[in-house]
Amino acid sequence: MGQPVVEIAELTKIYNGTTVVNKLTLQIEEGEIFGFLGPNGAGKTTTILMLLGLTEPTYGEVRVKGFNSTREPLHVKRMTGYLPENVGFYDDLTARENLRYITRLNRIPDKEATERIGRALESVGLSDVAEKDVSKFSKGMRQRLGIADVLVKEPKLVILDEPTSGIDPAGVNKILDMIVDMSRKRGITVLLSSHMLHQVQKVCDRVGIIVNGSLVAQGTIEGLGKEIIAQGENLLEIQVDELNSRLIDSLGSITGVITVEPSGDMLTIRSDRDVTAEVSRVIVRCGSLPLHMRSKDYALEEIYMNYFQEGCPA
Ligand SMILES: Nc1ncnc2c1ncn2[C@@H]1O[C@H](COP(=O)(O)OP(=O)(O)OP(=O)(O)O)[C@@H](O)[C@H]1O
Ligand SMILES: [Mg+2]
């Protein structure tokens, strides 16, 4: 484990008597891609704004590389690249001119800036359209320019708030590749806020799940899956030679089975104890043959739903 780049301790934000971020504590290590997940209104953007020193916490504190975001926001902003939910550009300027504006704002000397802009445009695949007005850019191109905008600062930490929303699948893959590159090739620490669970699952080293302002889980996807299993939940995936409703009903009536979900010739059985032996017996008794049976790992979507349901009993 490296040195933590982000240290959040007991971070709390109360707006007009309503707690929207509640005693959030977490650390993000150097070079990690951390997925920040949660439903609408969970408190993700509010946490990010406190991290950047753009909103003051009611209690608690955030540090980025040791600097307090509330008291030393300039230090934090200098080493942090932030792609907001809705990124804005000067539409009547070209892509290159927009980036130049950012480098001037960040007081990067012109010669150095020219090189950085060239590299940033190259790494987001916009070199060919660098002289085009941004008003002619598609949403995907704008989002990639947003990433270039973050990269020209050569930050230590990058915060991306929903970077793939409204982007087509090919565009999403490009953005995910860029995020992985930031971390693996440049050693940048990345905080990625998103609802897109399968995307997060593809690229994040660890995730934190926030519900109603509270962090209800954090860890690797594998680790969180194991925690659910430790709570007594098992997932069994089986393939049978013949699937019929009698079989599904019989499996559903085994003691401990919570759900039986068919998809194609596969069945996923969720249970609160190990039911492997009974499942085999029931399949054979129903005249089918189990072709393949394995204990299944939890996908991020299932992990998320597990905590989401716990966090929101309503
Ligand atoms: N300036 C503000 N004044 C009052 N309430 C606010 C303010 N900003 C956010 N909130 C409230 O705080 C809660 C958390 O909002 P936040 O934007 O942090 O959620 P989020 O997790 O980013 O959601 P989304 O996924 O929809 O972007 C919401 O209930 C929101 O209405
Ligand atoms: Mg948000």
Could you name the key traits of this structure?
single chain, 314 residues, alpha/beta, Rossmann fold, Alpha-Beta Plaits, 2 domains, six-stranded mixed sheet, four-stranded antiparallel sheet, 11 helices, binds adenosine-5'-triphosphate, binds magnesium ion
Task: Describe the structure concisely for a colleague.
By secondary structure, the chain is of the alpha/beta class. The protein has helices at 44-51, 73-79, 95-105, 110-123, 139-151, 169-186, 197-203, 221-230, 245-252, 276-285, 300-311; strands at residues 4-15, 18-29, 33-37, 59-64, 67-68, 80-83, 157-161, 189-194, 206-211, 214-219, 234-240, 257-263, 266-271, 290-295. The model has no long low-confidence stretch (mean pLDDT 89).
- The top-level CATH class of the largest domain is Alpha Beta
Low-confidence stretches: none
* Reported CATH architecture of the largest domain: 3-Layer(aba) Sandwich
Helical content class: 25-40%
Measured between the Cα atoms of the first and last residue, the distance is 38 Å
Strand order of the largest sheet: 6-7-8-3-9-10
- Return the CATH topology of the largest domain: Rossmann fold
Beta-strand content: 25-35%
Order of helices and strands: EEEHEEHEHHHEHEHEEHEHEEHEH
- How many strands in all? 14
* Total helical segments: 11
* Relevant CATH superfamily of the largest domain: P-loop containing nucleotide triphosphate hydrolases
| Hetero groups | adenosine-5'-triphosphate, magnesium ion
Radius of gyration of CA atoms, rounded to a whole number: 24 Å
Biggest sheet statistics: 6 strands, mixed
What is the global morphology? elongated
Mean of residue pLDDT values: 89
